[in-house]
Write a structure and sequence with these properties.
The protein has seven helices and ten strands. It is α+β, with helices and mostly antiparallel strands. It has one domain (57-203). It has a six-stranded antiparallel sheet with strand order 3-4-5-9-8-7. Strands 1-6 form a two-stranded antiparallel sheet. A hairpin with a 2-residue loop joins strand 8 (159-166) and strand 9 (169-177). It starts with a helix and ends with a strand.
C-alpha cells in the first residue's frame, strides 16, 4: 500500500489512484509569551506611594473655647445621635434653630464627624475634622485663604459650601438647594454667614 501511495505521489496523481493524502497532525500551539510580573511591580509602586505620601496629623483642639460656645439642646435628639455626639473627639457644631435640626443623622469617627439635617427643600450638611495633611503655605496662598476664622463661600450646581476653622478643627457647612440659586437664601452670602455664626456646640470631647 505504501509503495502504491509513493508511486502516485511521484506521478502527481493521487486522485487518479483513488487515494488521498494522509491527514497531517495539527501543529503544536506556540507557547504563550511570558508576561513580566506586573502584579509585583504594582505592589511595589503602591508601597512606595504610601511611603512618600505625607502622614495626616491630628490637630490639638481648644476644648475650653468649644465649651464656651452657645450650647445646643440635644434632649430631643434620638438616643443614637446623642451617643454619637458624646463619643465624637471633634467639637460637633449644629444649627441653633431647632427647625433646622429635623431629620438629623450624625456620624463620627476618629478625628471627624458629619451631620445631615434640615428640611427636604434645603438640606444641610455640617462636617468637622481635626485631621490635616502637613504642608507649608506660601504667603500668596495665605492671603488668598484669608484669616483662619474667615468664612469662605463657594457655589457649584445648586450646592453652597462655607468653610471655616474653629477650635483647631476645620469645618464645612453645605446647603443643597433644590431650587438652586433661585432660592434667595442660597444666593445670599450674608444669609449663609449668619447660618454659620448660629452654629452651636452640640457635643464632643477627648
Amino acid at each position: 500500500m505504501v509503495r502504491r501511495w509513493m508511486a502516485c505521489v511521484l506521478a502527481g496523481a493521487l486522485g487518479s489512484c483513488g487515494l488521498t493524502e494522509p491527514a497531517q497532525p495539527d501543529p503544536a500551539p506556540e507557547p504563550a509569551p511570558v508576561e513580566p510580573a506586573e502584579a509585583e511591580d504594582d505592589e511595589m509602586a503602591v508601597k512606595q506611594a504610601m511611603q512618600m505620601a505625607p502622614a495626616k496629623r491630628k490637630d490639638a483642639i481648644d476644648w475650653a473655647a468649644a465649651f464656651e460656645r452657645q450650647r445646643i439642646d440635644v434632649s430631643g435628639f434620638s438616643t443614637k445621635n446623642r451617643a454619637t455626639l458624646e463619643r465624637s473627639n471633634v467639637p460637633v457644631l449644629l444649627p441653633s434653630d431647632p427647625d433646622l435640626c429635623t431629620n438629623l443623622t450624625v456620624l463620627a469617627g476618629e478625628g471627624w464627624y458629619t451631620a445631615t439635617l434640615g428640611p427636604t427643600e434645603r438640606q444641610i450638611f455640617v462636617r468637622g475634622t481635626r485631621l490635616a495633611t502637613p504642608r507649608t503655605w506660601t504667603e500668596e496662598e495665605k492671603r488668598a485663604l484669608g484669616a483662619d476664622d474667615a468664612v469662605r463661600i463657594s457655589r457649584l450646581d445648586g450646592l453652597v459650601s462655607a468653610s471655616f476653622s474653629l477650635f483647631g478643627a476645620a469645618y464645612s457647612l453645605e446647603l443643597e438647594c433644590t431650587k438652586g440659586m433661585d432660592d434667595p437664601f442660597c444666593a445670599d452670602d450674608e444669609a449663609v454667614k449668619r447660618l454659620v455664626t448660629s452654629l452651636g456646640f452640640a457635643g464632643g470631647g477627648e
